[in-house]
Amino acid sequence: MPDIRWLSEEEQQLWLEFREFLWGFPSAMDRQLARDSGMSSGEYAVLAAVSQGAPEALRSGDLATSLQWERSRVSHLLRRMEAKGMIERRAASADGRGQEITMTNSGWKAIRAAAPAHVGFVREALFDPLSELEKDQLRSMLGKIRSAVVERELW
Amino acid sequence: MPDIRWLSEEEQQLWLEFREFLWGFPSAMDRQLARDSGMSSGEYAVLAAVSQGAPEALRSGDLATSLQWERSRVSHLLRRMEAKGMIERRAASADGRGQEITMTNSGWKAIRAAAPAHVGFVREALFDPLSELEKDQLRSMLGKIRSAVVERELW
DNA sequence: ACACAATGATTGACATGTCAACTATTTATG
DNA sequence: CATAAATAGTTGACATGTCAATCATTGTGT
């Protein structure tokens, strides 16, 4: 292997920290939601998206797009959430292939009960520790990294 | 709910970007490894850790510590990797409870074959897009966020 | 020594995600 | 219109992770 630019000690260090962070943060978020509200971060994301959406019922595919998830992931999760009574699905009126998602009363209760603690976690974990400047820097860096990955057609 | 500090529009925006990033980047990394080398990021992490370790065989628990993974996660993955012939496990000589992990020839071949493309991905996705200053900033921010989560005993 | 806690690791049940194949509808095209 | 292609979504097989329970070995205190 000729011209591989291997990582320096320092780069290796940052990379490992970064990788641990990518694993550790979502894991912490899941634990917070499970502990305080008995739901997964996926369920929270779906409930939040559906509850904030337009008055018209959300389509399953739109959910996949807005969350940037695979269709089958959405499909599996919605099935489980429907079984738990958090949401309901029905054939879309406009397009016979589509599914419209609506929240049940139980779903509304669940998201309202979970939101305060979860927002608290987000605020204390992400926003409070960073200055305004740092938040801008973070946003910018995430954008740059994301673009680089997109260019490689892996995002 | 009295004094909840909800997120502003802008904060909400950053939070959603952040959350998508936390999901999207590892997913991209997995796709790179699967596509170029037919292995998962977990397998790569294990092979890299074992191959870089001291000459003495690595203990399963040490692997869990250094990767910051749960023991059972390590155990499950090592079982699958042993079945694939990437690594071997044997009872530790010093401590009858421990397991020592060694790489097979096949494991060595796999990591050597996978490393160039994976390092390339890391470099192009993370290091090349960021300036030296930004890398320092990133390291610092990740540390701050991590500390905040650790304080909440969720990390 | 002996009882009992602590440690190292595994296991099983289950939640979640991916990928590829499939069904059903809608759209496009000659 | 007839057929083909595109779109929406589901499904099943399988990889991966969590949690709680379990097992075996090692350490500790008296």
From TrEMBL, chains A, B:
InterPro entries: HTH_MarR-typ, MarR/SlyA-like, WH-like_DNA-bd_sf, WH_DNA-bd_sf. Residues 1-147 form the HTH marR-type domain. This is HTH marR-type domain-containing protein. It comes from the Bacteria. It holds the Pfam family MarR_2.
